Amino acid sequence: MFAPKHILLAACTACTLTITPALAQQRYNLGRPATPAEIAGWDIDVKADGTGLPKGRGTVAAGAAIFAEKCAACHGAKGEGSVANKLAGGGGTLNTAGALKTVGSFWPYPTTLFDYIRRAMPHNAPQSLKSDEVYSLTAFILNVNGVIDAKAEMNQATLPKVQMPNKGGFKQVVD
Amino acid sequence: MDQTLERRAPAEEARAPNPRRAFLRRGAALTTAAGLLGAGRAEALEPEKAAPALLPPNVPPWTRSQGGPFINPPYGLPSRHEVGVVRVLPQPAAAFPTGSRTPLQNLHGIITPSGLVYERHHAGVPDIDPNAHRLMLHGLVERPMMFTMEDLARFPSVSRIHFLECSGNSSAELKKPTGKTAQEIHGLLSCCEWTGVALSTVLQEAGIKRDAKWVLAEGADGAAMTRSVPLGKALDDALLVYAQNGEMLRPEQGYPLRLFLPGFEGNMSVKWLRRLKLGTEPFETREETAAYTDLLPDGTSLQFTFHMEAKSVITFPSGGQKLKARGFYEISGLAWTGRGKVKRVEVTLDGGKTWVEARLQEPVLSKALARFRLPWQWDGGPALIASRCIDDTGTQPGMGEVLKLRGANSNYHNNAIQYWKIDADGSVQNVRA
Fold first, then answer.
1. Where are the beta strands (DSSP E) in B149-300?
2. Mean pLDDT within A118-145
3. What percent of chain A shows pLDDT beyond 70?
4. Total CB pairs under 8 A between chain A and B
5. I want to staple B405 with a disulfide (CB 3.0 to 4.6 A). Which of A4, A52, A68, B395 is the partner?
6. Which residues pair with B422 in a beta bridge?
């Protein structure tokens, strides 16, 4: 019927949705193998444990400069929001009528921020940023949210370890 | 953010389907006031205003002359008198518009014409050359594969009728009654016949590794939209669709290829599908963490609430329409559930005190819109009408129940009962009962 009941049912429905049945079905021999080079060009997702993060590094200071140039027009100088989303603030508001969801107040994983900027931002030129730029922008946005220190460097090893304030804020229902 | 979808300003009214088109649903082939007023505005049918020269005993000009030519235009259009039946954007216009809405109150039966299917994009509508479109399938598979559209069209195909609903549909109503018409409030809802290949068939082609549990679906648009889909759903009834209502997908519906997950929130049916990657866990993308998660009153959120639950709405009479005179009307509306088939629809005429069973149009299809109808004599007095959908899992909840359990910040999956208040002057309004 509707969600609250599903919370109770979560444990069992999660299984039915994720079961892998024994598979012995016909093949049609359509399509062709994807080459490693082809896959490398499109395989841009980054998982919560950091799998998929590319080599490279970025700092808050470098991120501030890139943000001013490529992001601030839509998101405000420090991510306070403009024509597009607020990227900072909202801490402590989630259980109030004025709940404000931002990277700092709401996002559970720092890796999602890297993934999203790399695939979708800047809005007017998606997939145009280099890895170092994405690390730097990620560092800057985490810093304006008070999540990481101004001196912190973000890279394959450090980013997945960043603890987001709302990390424990999600119940996985899978239904 | 989806809340911005819910507002429309008066400026939009001029272009919006006119709410007072109530009598159009009678299906009579009559000249409408819209035609007399010219394009761009649809008015309620006003047969009493037709010029006497067009009425018996006179014979109108369209009977005394040859009509227009064939294939004019080659891809046919609705009558010029129906120009007001269009999708609308929320107003005031957002800097980055998010979605357009289906004119539910102007539609008949259960199929949404392709040109009226709601849109929700995150980076506009890409113009994709089907010859240059590829589907990559990799991750936990035996054989990473690449498919052209030609390859995909060669697989055994399947056609199914299913609804598609954005989980942000009706969300502004959680705060207060906001929209005026069924379109504004519930128009992120459509239903089409979808044709493509079963996703399970294509996954077999690559061979699924034993530890695979989730499938990442990614679009080729500027948002590179990504969602994680449980493998169980992928192997159950998921489709890779390339056609809709008998023709190739419309660009705004994912041309040339979209994932289609019957009964799940619309965002997961990733459009312009370019990549599927199998993994052991959900991929925790922005659209399943920052967005499309349901914030509860205690500040925690539900994640992966995929099913669109039992819901219904009366589309006639509905918000913004007007009943001209007392007498017979057929109450009509739509019911649906992502859990399977609609079992029953009940209608109240007295604000929820008593409920009567409406008639369902057969066949009732699984995870499709169902049309319900109830004959009604309007006595000219005020009435508070609503419908509720019953499926295998229970009865559609009232707003009070939804707010108690999910809260006004939950933003997604509002399936509360919609009440319409009919005043003695026949006008119909969106209210909370």
1. 158-165, 189-198, 214-219, 226-230, 239-244, 247-248, 258-260, 273-279, 294-295
2. 98
3. 86
4. 203
5. A4
6. B383, B428
Q: A18, B295: Cβ pair inside 8 Å? A: no
Query: What are φ and ψ of residue B267, in 5° steps?
Result: -55, -30
Query: How distant is the Cα of A94 from the closest Cα of chain B, in angstroms?
Result: 5
Hey, what amino acid is at B16? A
Assess A30–B contact: CB distance below 8 Å, yes or no: yes
CATH superfamily of A37-168: Cytochrome c-like domain (1.10.760.10)
Phi, psi of B296 (to 5 degrees): -95, 165
For residues B335 and B186, the answer to whether their CB atoms sit within 8 Å is no
Paired tokens of B62: 């369209």
Cross-strand partners of B328:
B377
pTM of the model: 0.91
- Cβ distance of A34 and B415 shorter than 8 Å: no
**CA B127, CA B58: separation in Å to the nearest integer?**
51
Q: What is the DSSP pairing of strand B273-279 with strand B134-139?
A: parallel
Residue B253: φ, ψ to 5°: -105, 10
In 3D, which of B286, B284, B251 has the Cα closest to residue B1? B286
| pLDDT value at residue B98 | 86
First to last CA, chain A: 12
d(CA B315, CA B183): 9
Residue extents of the structural domains in chain A = 37-168
Please report the domains of chain B, with CATH numbers, ordered by start residue.
Answer: 134-301 (3.90.420.10), 311-431 (2.60.40.650)
Contacts of B136 in chain A (CB under 8 A): 34, 38-39, 42
Counting other chains too, the contacts that B400-407 makes at CB distance below 8 Å and 24 or more residues apart are: B402/A2, B402/B174, B403/B174, B405/A2, B405/A3, B405/A4, B406/A2, B406/A3, B406/A4, B406/B174, B406/B294, B406/B296, B406/B297, B407/B174, B407/B295, B407/B296, B407/B297
Structure confidence by residue, pLDDT tens digits, B60-92: 999 999 999 999 999 999 999 999 999 999 888
**Angle of helix A110-120 relative to helix A131-144, nearest 10 degrees?**
130
**What stretches in chain B show pLDDT beneath 70?**
1-43
* pLDDT tens-digit series, residues A72-105: 999 999 999 999 999 999 999 999 999 999 999 9
